[in-house]
Amino acid sequence: KGHIIFKNVSFGYIENEPILTDFNLEIKPGQTLAIVGATGARKSSIINVLNRFYEIQSGSISIDGIDIQKFNIDFLREKIGLVLQDVFLFSGSIRDNICLGNENIRDEEILLACDEIQARKFIENLPGGLNFDVMERGGVLSSGQRQILSFIRAVISKPEILILDEATSSVDSQTEEMIRLSIENMLKGRTSIVIAHRLSTIRKADLIIVLEKGQIVELGNHSELLNKNGHYKELFEMQFREGIRK
């Protein structure tokens, strides 16, 4: 169901140098959590320990009441869809880049995943459709198109938990608006964690936390945080002013 609880979690990449200390957080099933904060706020560290790319030093992280240490790592990661800022594509077809060598995935399943994020038209408009060669690192595709492929990759396995880690930070504002609907459709019915640089992408999140050096300094939804006149409002107004200048 995707009920995630961080309980008294302490973690550091270097021994005796913790960057998360007694960290506590609950994400309820089907809830969208957004994490914001300046560079160095430890946003990605939360993702790293949830996926068990690194092991925590103390405390516990559980999903549906089960400590993630008890899960087989392959099983755990199959249940978590992850979209990163930098999309890696290799020379080969659209199909190859979505399936990543899994020959059990049928074209019908790929197209259903495209439908889920309203991307079928994008695929069908490419010469050859799923057979279209993206070339090395997806050089013939725009940044927005490469990101759409990463979304299809993420939902093809029907993950219960979805993580978007700065997934729109490398695209321009116009492209971001184009893929906004895809993101909204991806989040529906899933427990989701969205790390966002642009606050415009997280206004509809059920819960937003503001991090500073691994500590939650503010928590609430978009409206609640604006009314607090704190860190979140400062970030929001700063980005709003930057948008006007552009």
SSE map:
Layout (H helix, E strand, L loop, with lengths): L3 E8 L8 E8 L4 E5 L6 H8 L7 E6 L2 E2 L5 H6 L1 E4 L10 H6 L7 H10 L3 H5 L18 H13 L5 E5 L7 H15 L3 E5 L11 E6 L2 E6 L1 H6 L3 H15 L1
Parallel strand pairs: 3-8, 3-9, 6-7, 7-8
Antiparallel strand pairs: 1-2, 1-4, 4-5, 9-10
Helix pairs in contact: 6-7
Task: Walk me through the structure.
The chain has helices spanning 43-50, 73-78, 94-99, 107-116, 120-124, 143-155, 173-187, 222-227, 231-245, and strands spanning 4-11, 20-27, 32-36, 58-63, 66-67, 80-83, 161-165, 191-195, 207-212, 215-220. The termini are far apart. The chain has 246 residues and is of the alpha/beta class. Strand 9 and strand 10 (215-220) form a beta hairpin. Helix 6 (143-155) runs parallel beside helix 7.
Distance between the termini: 42 Å
Rough outline = globular
Mean pLDDT: 86
Which sequence of SSEs, written as H and E, runs from N to C?
EEEHEEHEHHHHEHEEEHH
Profile the largest sheet. Answer: 6 strands, mixed
Whole-number radius of gyration? 19 Å
Oligomeric nature of the chains:
single chain
Strand content: 15-25%
Q: What class do helices, strands and sheet pairing give?
A: alpha/beta
Characteristic key phrases:
246 residues; alpha/beta; six-stranded mixed sheet; 9 helices
Briefly say what this structure is:
With 246 residues, this protein is of the alpha/beta class. The protein is built from nine helices and ten strands. Helix 6 runs parallel beside helix 7 (173-187).
